[in-house]
Amino acid sequence: MLSPALLVAIPLIAAALLGGLRKLLPRLLTDVLALLTALFNLVLASLWTLHALHRTQVYWFGGWYPRGHMALGIGFVMDVAGCGLATLTAFLATLALLFSFRYTDSGGDHYHPLMLVFLAAMSGFALTGDLFNLFVFFELMSTAAFALCGLKTQEPSPLAGAFNFAVTNTVAAFMMLTGIALLYSTTGALNLAQLGLLLAGRHDRLVLAAFAFLMTGFLVKAATVPFHFWLPDAHAVAPTSVCVLFSGVMVPMGLFGAMRVYATIFQGCFAGTHVSWIFIAFGSLSALWGGIMCFAEHHLKRLLAFSTVSHTGLMLLAFGLWTKTAMAGLLLYLVGHALVKAGLFFCAGILLHRFRSVSEPWLFGKGRALRRTRILWILGGFGLAAAPGFALAIGESYISAGAGWTEWIFLAVGALTGGAVLRAGLRIFFGLGDAGPTDESAKVDEAPETLKESHQINWFLWTPALACIAGSIALTFWPEYTNAVHSAAIRFMDFGSYAHAVYQQFTPASMVRAAAIPGKDWLLAGVHAFLALGLALWAVYRRRIPRALRWPSHIEGPLRPFRALQSGYPGDYVAWLTVGSAALGAAAFWLGH
Amino acid sequence: MMILGAGLLVLIAISALVIVRTDDVTNQILALSFYGLLFALLFFLFQAPDVALSQITVGAIALPLMVMLAITRMKHRGELKAQGQAEKGHD
Amino acid sequence: MLANLPYYVAAWLFLCGLYGIVRSRHLVHTVISLTVLQSSTYVLLLAIGFRKGGYAPIFADIAPGVITVDPVVQALMLTDVVVEVTVVALLLAMVVKAFEKGGTTRPDDLRFMRG
Amino acid sequence: MTEKRRLLLFFAGAIGVASVYCAGIRNMPPFGHYRGPYGDVIARLAVYERHTTDTVNAITYDYRGFDTLGEEFILFSAVTGVMLLLRPETQERRRRETEGENPESFRDRAALSETVQVFTTGMFGFAVLFGIYIGTHGQLTPGGGFQGGVIIAAAPMLLYVAENTDAFRRILSHPLMEFFEALGAAGYAVVGLVALAFSAPFLTNVLPLGKTGDVFSSGTIAVISACVGVEVGAGFMLVTYEYLREILSREKNTED
After folding, report:
1. Confidence at A153, pLDDT banded by 50, 70, 90
2. How many domains does chain D have?
3. Cβ of B82 under 8 Å from any chain D Cβ?
4. Which of A485, B31, B70, B80 measures 20 to 30 Å from D91, CA to CA?
5. Interface contact A20-D179, CB threshold 8 A
6. Model confidence over A288-313: pLDDT tens digits?
7. Domain ranges of chain C
């Protein structure tokens, strides 16, 4: 089979080619070449995922195989979870490039190289088995993302969002590097498996401090409250096709980094302690905070960004449970969320293309003519609420199978985020109720992304949305997929099989034992859908219901003290980051010592 | 040599505080250039000639130069704007 | 404390950088503070790989087998230097553009998108 | 948030972060006692396996060469980002097109003095040669592609200092500059791919090793180093030009 290095090398070479020859290549050819590269990644990553189902293989760059217990070079560990995530990245990148086909302003054709570098970085991040290499890909991913945020420079606000994004994420990267250095000082190793073996059973102050720094770095990327402030700002300024990758894979990728590091390095250190409660606490806070802020938002892209905060918080919560079923649920949820969220962003992009705005009050009633987009948006709303028949519902039933109390958080998040999307859908596409209250950010109009004033909605604009939403439904009818994700989760958590692969070149699947599969709880999912729709209708028709019953729709109101925190000032964000990091460190010392 | 290293480290610690507490950007660039040189010295002293070489080229030259270029461009733009406003005023 | 001075200097630089970003009143100042934050990782990495009496890991002038300092951290620092300069270049371009579009270099004035 | 509150909030957090950091430090091996083994093993192996004398470069360009590939593309995307952000917008571009870019239509400002010009031209050549030397001897002595590239990129600045704006502009605005930058970046990855053709893992050295101490002793390290040098040099020149373009074109206009 083709070398996994190509997953990184081919997009990078293509990026350099498109960048170097950008003045010579016509736009159509650039588009096609970029699409073909993303497709190549999709095919190769899928093949490797299938391969990984049979055995976890390790690929050593430069042929530097480990000598004894010491890893000399850098290795890719081709496990199911990593390969699957690389596949998801390639899938969404392909659709994003299709969406931006021909008409999107490509900023002097700098857009395509950056997208391909972004794709390569995320693929590498998902697969690497080396701690410092993880940092390099983290930084590569960030740099490409910062640059992509600068695409729409017609007005000053995009730069504010991009600047905040860059500052907070760079601080996060250096926190991560500090953590790496601390671990290196005591072990003299950078390979994840080697670090895990060397540190097993140690939970002294050094390990705890390194844990705090590393996790802060990853959780900033995963937009966990209180590290999340950059995310809505960055989403509001990035073009739609970039938002799809931000929300769909980049943010969950931060979480995945934390999970990978925890599963390899820290799992053995903190066995028997309650350190993973930290993730439950931070996750629950993000889930609820993001949900409330999401419902209060009227700028569609920021609304979806806050929902990403909320859903990533739920995944973090599932990670904190640290059981095999919860992990399987997390991975199922991650894929389902990525698809639904990408679909919704594509729909928002169509609105932006057609009406040159993403403000909910401004768009009131304007979307009636967009039949296809209307259906997709409403389906997406139900999907986000984890309604029956969507991939998120299966993930949720897995996660809550072992921890019944999480159902309440799921219920709140589903109702708030799904309700917000449905509310916007009812107003924009059906013109129900009134235009609703507005907030300051909804007044800021987005710069149009498309080159020509065009009212036509071409096939390449709506097919990506269709593919995503349809995919999130289709996955529930594919039991093999669920089983594969289940085995991926079990192998992901099993450090023994990971280390075996690193030192023995591969681990056969037979070494891994399966766990019980929980049943699907369709009734609960139905309650979700009902609540979300109810909340949406309540908000839309709030004027027609008796005053005493209006209270749920007040969440939509101004929420001034909460909003004031989202100040757009980098100093505030870094101050919160410091506080969050301190809280994380304090909790780690309290629970892990 | 250790005393020299310790002195250098203390100097670095002090100049870091001075840099972040300086509000005037031009002074800050000068301080930054000096700071970059201190690091290059530190790297030589601690047996890292490779890093010292890139630190001299980057930290003491390229970085302050880039800040300088950015500021020059901003000043230039500011002058252009002022000129444009003055011309409008004449009309 | 004194024996481990480099480590504490690294911690100090880290906090200085954070402090600089938090109190910043000029966008260029924010960027420069970020480089101070970054320089803390230089000191930390360098100190970790150092050995008393060790030579630079270049075997052109010394015989193999002599005690050397750790070459790996130096390779990591080289990457770190590149990361620093690229991030600064990108951030400064944003600052320049923000100034050209909005006419401001004060972070406070970036609050267009509040709420 | 007011500034006072922000600082209070920050100091509360900073105390926590400082305590965590210091707690970590107190458990670290004491300063000056690096324990290994990673660095020591590579330091012992590199001279024999890779015929390099500068171990740092053996790690940067071979043992951990994959990191450096990522690092080169961090630079590549940052340069692309700078070009993207500072690109002339449509109106300005149109204005420039109508003006036409005829290099004969403008002259340099009165030169400082011939001594300065001769001196800087000499220094220019010296800087370029020095950059090439540093770039190609990385496997033997301190230096390497990155450092060499930055030095070469700094050379045209000497011309700018000497107010030889014309030559400066001609070098920096050369249409091939972007091409070179991409070539350097792609070259690195292609060197890695060549190994695949020999059915060896990505980035494996497939070139014969020479006698330790020679310039071409270490196989792919020299090739990769050269690629990095080209990319870094071109990248930095592109960034410099993007910042200065507006100022340069204005100088040109005033002199017309």
Report:
1. low
2. 1
3. no
4. B70
5. yes
6. 999 999 998 888 999 999 999 999 99
7. 5-113
Ordered DSSP codes for A15-55:
HHHHHHTTTTS-HHHHHHHHHHHHHHHHHHHHHHHHHHHHE
HEC string for A366-430 = HHHHCHHHHHHHHHHHHHHCCCCCCHHHHHHHHHHHHCCCHHHHHHHHHHHHHHHHHHHHHHHHH
Q: D121 is in which domain, residue-wise?
A: 36-255
Average the pLDDT over A515-535 and give the result: 79
CB contact under 8 A, D56 and C7: no
Mean pLDDT, residues A29-41: 95
b/e burial code for range D160-190 (CB count within 10 A of at least 16 → b):
bebbbbbbbbebbbeeebbbbbbbbbbbbbe
Rg (CA), chain D: 24
Give the distance from residue A266's alpha carbon to the nearest chain D alpha carbon, in angstroms: 15
Checking if the pLDDT of A424 tops 90, the result is yes
Put simply, the chain D residues between 21 and 80 with a CB less than 8 A from any chain C CB are 21-22, 25, 28, 30-34, 36, 38-40, 42-44, 46-47, 53-56, 58-60, 64, 67-68, 71, 74-75, 78-79
In a domain? residue D40: yes
pTM for the full model?
A: 0.94
On whether any CB of chain D is under 8 Å from the CB of A182, the answer is yes
Which residue reads 């390790």 in tokens? A58
The 3-state secondary structure of A434-461 reads CCCCCCHHHHCCCCCCECCCCCCCCHHH
Nearest to A386 by CA among A336, A347, A424, A352: A336
Which residue from C minimizes the CA distance to B64?
A: C32
What's D196-222 look like in SS3?
HHCCCCCCCCCCCCCCCCCCCCCCHHH
Q: Which of D227, D215, D218, D220 is nearest to D202 (CA)?
A: D220
Asked if residue A422 lies in contact with residue A354, where contact means CB atoms within 8 angstroms, the answer is no
pLDDT tens digits, A536-566: 888 888 778 777 777 666 666 666 677 778 8
CA distance, residue C42 to nearest chain B CA (Å): 9
Are residues D81 and A580, on separate chains, in Cβ contact within 8 Å? Answer: no
CA A350, CA A362: separation in Å to the nearest integer?
Answer: 15
Which of A83-92, A151-160, D220-229 has the lowest average pLDDT? A151-160
Give the confidence band of D117 by pLDDT, cuts at 50, 70, 90: confident
Residue D9 domain flag: no
List chains adjacent to chain C, taking adjacency as at least 3 C-beta pairs closer than 8 Å.
A, B, D
Interface mutation vs chain D, best among B53, B65, B71, most D CBs within 10 Å: B53
Q: Is the pLDDT of residue A481 over 70?
A: yes
Question: Which of A1, C82, D86 is CA-nearest to residue B62?
Answer: C82
Report the candidate in A310, A182, A189 with the shortest Cα–Cα distance to residue A247: A310
Question: How high is the ipTM of this complex?
Answer: 0.93
Q: Has domain C5-113 been given CATH number 1.10.287.3510?
A: yes
Q: Which domain holds residue B49?
A: 2-90
| D162 within some domain | yes
CA gyration radius for chain C?
A: 19
